[in-house]
Each structure stands twice: as C-alpha cells, then as structure tokens.
Amino acid sequence: MSADLPQALPFMKMHGLGNDFVVIDLRAGGQPPAAGLIMRIADRNRGVGFDQLATIEADEQADLRLRFWNPDGSVSAACGNATRCIARYVMDETGRDRLSLRTDHGTLQAEDAGAGMTRVNMGHPVFDWRQIPLAQDVDIDHLPIPGDPVATGMGNPHMTFFVEDAAAVDLEGFGARHEHHPLYPERSNVEIVQVLSRDEILLRIWERGTGPTLASGSCSCAAAVAAARRGLTGRRVKVNVPGGVLHIDWREDGVWMEGATAHVFSGMLTPEWLSE
Ligand SMILES: N[C@H](CCC[C@H](N)C(=O)O)C(=O)O
C-alpha cells in the first residue's frame, strides 16, 4: 500500500421507505466530499448508490447541521427522509427525544413519535414565485403547463400534478421532461398525485437530480400542501408512496411528516477505491 493513499472514509447507509441515503458523519471534523466524489459514491454498480448523500456536522446554533446532495452532485436545501433517518440515529445514540437540525431550509425540529416512528417539522411551504423559484410571476395554483400542476417550495422546488390514475403515467418520460421545464430555473421535483379520499393520496415521485424514487419527504409535503390548497383533501393526509406510508400534517407551525426509518449498515470507502 503506498503511503500517499487517502484515509478510509466511514459512512452509514440509511433509508426512509426505500428513499436511500449515504450519510457521512463529520461531527468530529472533516470536509464534505467534493461533487466529483459524491457522483462516484452515487454509482450503484461501482460505488455505493443513494438517492441523496447527507453530511452531519456539529453546529453552534442547533443540535446538528445537515447538508444534502443528489446523485448528479447538485445540492438540495431539503431532504425530509434523510432528516428523519439522521434524527432517529442521533436520538437513539443520545437518548434524547427531540432535536433541532439546521439545514439550508432553516432549522427543523425532529421528535420521537413513538413505536419507532420519527417526526420532523419540514418548515413552512413557500408560495412566493421568486423563492420557489419560478422564472416568472404566474398563478402557482394553476401553472400555465398542460396538466394544470401546482407549484410549491419546500426549500426545494416542486410541480404537483393531479391525475385520475397515477399508475397510468409514464413517469420516466414525464418526470425527465418536467424536471427541466423552463418555468423552473433551478429544475423541479415532479409529483403525480391520485386523490383517494379527503385524507389519503397516492403519490408517484420524480426527484430532481435523482429520477424516480420509492419515497420522498419533501415531495410528500409538497403534494399534501398542493392537495389541500386545491381543496381536494384536508391538511392531514396519509401519503402512499411506492415504498410505504408517510403521514403529513400541515399545521400552523409548519408541515410535519412522520414515518419509519432504517439504519441498514455502516461501511468504509477504502483508500484504494478513493484514490482510483
Ligand atoms: N428525498 C428527499 C428530497 C430530495 C429532493 C432533491 N431531489 C432535490 O430537490 O434536489 C426528501 O426526502 O425530501
């Protein structure tokens, strides 16, 4: 082994309803990986594979500082399921039942919801077109796009379509096309929603920078907020995603999201692989 190989890089693999994450714990120090290394780790054949990579850092204002990246190396200010996974891990580690987590979308509160479930307040939805962001001032409840979608910001941009039959949508073609719609200068996450009742929806997801995923926290929040704004549901809904169930509750203090999490394994990226 040559003396100038990088050190091994420890990581954790976690998932929330199949929305999977590589988590790098930097609380003791160290820099987040550069975009090139993030893209290599994202490779499901030659790396580890993930929907998002997250780092945990120590923070002076909150209990933890979290950052998120997509497999294409782009940054996301919000990642609800990774936030829940990391909150659960640190609550188990410290014995605490509440944590504050600073993200690029503000400081979020997480709590133990009992029965192994973890709840996070994802903050207030954003309805200002400049902050979502959209390219121009349009009616966000009825975007000038075929299919009549709703625009919502959850720290990241969302475009939500309501359909009769979500299973009938060609998500690959539809999602890829709409992620890059010119109305969204920073691209968009795309949600296909089928309303089942006043308090239950079916959701299929195309994540910006990732593609189709089994679940997505911020997409579930955006879909629930959009359904409530359209008057199709109340503000508390059960969201059925391909990977399971999330419960969304749009309260006065923000959009709360509750569901299961898993810490699957801890591993090491080897010095040999890191230096390739
Ligand atoms: N999986 C995440 C969302 C990632 C969003 C990301 N694809 C973007 O906006 O760039 C979640 O649970 O909220």
Key phrases:
276 residues, Diaminopimelate Epimerase, Chain A, domain 1, 2 domains, 5 helices, 17 strands, 18% helix, binds 2,6-diaminopimelic acid
Strand content: 35-45%
Radius of gyration: 18 Å
Number of helices: 5
What's the CATH architecture of the largest domain?
Roll
Helix-and-strand structural type: alpha+beta
CATH superfamily of the largest domain: Diaminopimelate Epimerase, Chain A, domain 1
Number of strands: 17
Description:
The chain has 276 residues and is an alpha+beta fold. It has 5 helices and 17 strands. The chain has a 17-stranded mixed β-sheet that branches. Helices cover 18% and strands 39% of the residues. Strand 12 and strand 13 form a beta hairpin. It starts with 8 loop residues before the first strand and ends with a helix. The site of 2,6-diaminopimelic acid has 18 residues, from helix 2 and helix 4.
SSE layout:
Blueprint: E1 9-16, E2 19-25, H1 35-42, E3 52-57, E4 64-69, E5 75-76, H2 80-94, E6 98-103, E7 106-114, E8 117-121, E9 150-153, E10 157-162, H3 171-179, E11 189-197, E12 200-207, E13 211-213, H4 217-229, E14 236-241, E15 244-251, E16 254-259, E17 262-269, H5 271-274
Parallel strand pairs: 2-3, 4-6, 10-11, 12-14
Antiparallel strand pairs: 1-2, 1-17, 3-4, 4-5, 6-7, 7-8, 8-16, 9-10, 11-12, 12-13, 14-15, 15-16
The protein binds 2,6-diaminopimelic acid.
